[in-house]
Specification:
two-stranded parallel ribbon, three-stranded antiparallel beta sheet, alpha+beta, disordered C terminus, globular, disordered N terminus, single chain
Length: about 160
């Protein structure tokens, strides 16, 4: 989704989140075009696969990019079944919505960044903390990585 901050430019944050673990993969990309979304899904699938998570279904909102053949074909090529939230029902994708709210509160607005570059440079460390160290109330105070078999032990 599009996130704005006073004095700092616009960011299009693309997020893939595993429903069971809440492990999140996010990229700050220049737009929300169909090709951008499809390329993101390819990278996200590889990222999750490296962590022994296979994507079987992907739930997206009803944005224009996800209605295009590019998206459907990419899902098909990856062996993923595309699913869409019900129109005008953001709670259907509530885990990602909550993640974006946390992201804004704990990363984007946490400190006064002087530039987009500075804000973006801080993001990988924040996402690492989110996945590996931050307790989540929605999963009993565990970290997302702790819910992936053997994953927490692989991280340094």
């Amino acid at each position: 989704g599009r996130k704005n901050r006073t004095g700092v430019g616009l960011a299009y944050l693309h997020t893939a989140m595993d429903d069971h673990t809440r492990l999140a993969y996010t990229e700050d990309l220049p737009d929300e075009k169909a090709a951008t979304c499809a390329s993101f899904l390819i990278r996200a699938t590889a990222w999750f696969a490296a962590r022994s998570i296979t994507i079987e279904r992907v739930l997206t909102d009803n944005a224009w990019a996800y209605s295009k053949n590019t998206w459907r074909q990419t899902c098909h090529d990856l062996g993923i079944s595309p699913r869409w939230t019900r129109p005008w029902r953001p709670p259907t994708n509530g885990k990602v919505e909550r993640f974006h709210r946390t992201l804004l509160e704990e990363w984007a607005y946490q400190q006064p960044y002087t530039s987009d570059a500075e804000r973006q440079a801080a993001f990988p460390d924040w996402l690492d903390w989110y996945n590996y160290h931050r307790p989540h109330t929605g999963i009993g105070g565990h970290t997302p990585a702790s819910r992936v078999t053997n994953l927490s032990g692989q991280h340094t």
